[in-house]
Amino acid sequence: MESAVQIVREEGRLRVQHFNYARDLRPEELLRTHVLGAPLHGLVWQPKLLAESVAPNAFRLRPLHGYLGPPLPSAMLTREQLTLAQSDIYFVRTIPAATH
Length: 100
Fold this sequence. Notes:
mainly beta; 0% helix; 39% strand; globular
């Protein structure tokens, strides 16, 4: 088991960011990855989807551990299209290279 501070997108790659280092997050790891979100109205939440920004207002959805929904679309989605499922989505932050 490994813990991390956050998942980020750096130079087009998903990375697990710790306090003192970061490492690549392999695609096959996502289905085993548990994400716990910061308290929302006093409750910790566990999103089942990860949204990765791949262009301005264009997101790719990826399943996380426990996702039991329908197959995810291969097309990019806008932030507006993701609004209804927003409480189930972890939005990955894009960071500039070498900021960790």
